[in-house]
Amino acid sequence: MKKIVNLQLLNGTTLDLLSSIRHDELTRFIRSISENAKVGKLVDLDRELMKLTNNVISRMVTNERCMDKEGEEAENVGKLIAEITVAGGSFNLSDYIWLFKTLDLQGFEKRVKDLRSRFDVIIERIMKEHEEARKHKEVGGVQDLLDILLDVAQDESMEVNLTRENIKAFIQVCQYMHAA
């Protein structure tokens, strides 16, 4: 996976191809700040910068904005990523006392399984949409990171067999690393 990330996902060419996404999101950010300034509206700059960063990463990975003002699902994705981050960083007694290893005293195991299944449903939908769009897409068009991962998964000549679960895990790590 490290080789795939270095050679295909985060190389200079791929990052250059995705620069239009960064430019577009930065333009939206500046436009939003400007519009709010014109009407004298206060802006929570921390929130807006977090939204900018989330949208850049989300669009680079899946070509979908995750922090749009429109759409309840976009808001839910943002909240879900925040919940996953909190759950991953919370103190779990079972991690430190071997006697409690098999017990879910604080309910973390149940909570993490629920979060994971909710995230899985969203990512599976996005992957299916990508696969459907790829059937009708012109060869040589701009690809996001998910398209590249799907290409690698379908390439039988690769030394690593990438599964759907591997792709979902990669996307989750991308989102988690940013949120952390």
Automatic annotation (TrEMBL):
InterPro entries: Cyt_P450 (IPR001128), Cyt_P450_sf (IPR036396). Coiled coil: none annotated. Keywords: Heme, Iron, Membrane, Metal-binding, Monooxygenase, Oxidoreductase. It holds the Pfam family p450. One of its GO terms (molecular function) is iron ion binding. It is found in: Membrane. Gene3D superfamilies: Cytochrome P450. One of its GO terms (cellular component) is membrane. Its cofactor is heme. Belongs to the cytochrome P450 family. This is Cytochrome P450. It comes from Artemisia annua (Sweet wormwood).
